[in-house]
Write a structure and sequence with these properties.
The chain is mostly helical. The chain has helices at residues 3-21, 34-41, 45-57, 82-88, 92-119, 122-136, 142-158, 163-168, 170-183, 189-205, 209-234; strands spanning 61-64, 68-71. 70% of the residues lie in helices and 3% in strands.
Length: 243
């Protein structure tokens, strides 16, 4: 498949993902036929078929030979897919996924942080310190800060020097980035996060597993509190509505 075809396929599957996840296409309804979609997007039927395969891999649709393509209910979607999570936006599903991710991070990130305190090289620590100093310069730029925030936590995970765990956790990387793009919106969130990041780095630099794990745990507990507060801040209860 040519680069141009891949680009068109990405455009089609991105738009259809948006329509499905945001509710513009209802669960259990049928998508238009290949010929209709090909005409709408001005692409070949081959491009449409490739896009459908991607949507099926995300759990968004079910392709039934001779019976058309049906939109799956939300519980069958892949919540770890970055595009799915992005289009969930600030809805309840987004917060459910992020809350569950924080629970998971309490298990694996705290443990790996302890390993990182004894396994990170001086070069690793130098990279992390440079990363933190760069983050200090982007406290008022949510998009850039969220990218660097995700890189910080990926660096911490990789610092545990456990190749199997690092590989297993690769799908989490994009999920972290998408989540940070939302949770960093609350005023003061970036500044608060940096205090915890520097505390984590201090534990790593002192080669103190206990201090590092405690710093990560405090960071994640505060992140859980902030996630709940962010939901209330972005979606305040309407005045006069029932509790």
């Amino acid at each position: 498949m040519t680069t141009k075809s891949i680009s068109r396929r990405h455009l089609v599957q991105s738009e259809l993902t948006r329509r499905i996840v945001t509710g513009h296409v209802s669960p259990l309804s049928r998508l238009p036929k290949e010929t209709e979609l090909a005409e709408e997007f001005d692409v070949s039927r081959v491009v449409i078929r490739e896009a459908m395969k991607v949507l099926a891999e995300k759990g968004l649709i079910e392709i039934q030979q001779g019976r058309g393509t049906t939109v799956n209910p939300a519980h069958r979607w892949n919540p770890m897919d970055p595009q799915v999570l992005m289009h969930l936006g600030n809805g309840s599903s987004f917060y459910t996924v992020q809350a569950e991710l924080l629970e998971a991070r309490m298990v694996f990130e705290v443990k790996l942080a302890g390993l990182a305190a004894t396994r990170m090289t001086d070069r690793d620590l130098g990279h992390m310190e440079n990363l933190l100093r760069t983050m200090d310069q982007y406290l008022d730029d949510p998009d850039r800060f969220s990218e660097l925030d995700a890189e910080f936590h990926v660096t911490l995970i990789q610092g545990g020097k456990n190749a199997i765990l690092a590989k297993l956790l690769e799908p989490v990387h994009d999920l972290l980035k998408v989540g940070f793009q939302q949770t960093i919106l609350k005023p003061g969130a970036a500044q608060q996060a940096q205090v915890f990041h520097w505390a984590i780095f201090d534990g790593l630099k002192r080669r103190d597993p206990v201090a590092t794990q405690e710093a990560v745990q405090r960071h994640l507990i505060r992140a859980q509190e902030n996630l709940q507060a962010l939901g209330e801040w972005l979606n305040p209860t309407r005045e006069g509505s029932s509790a």
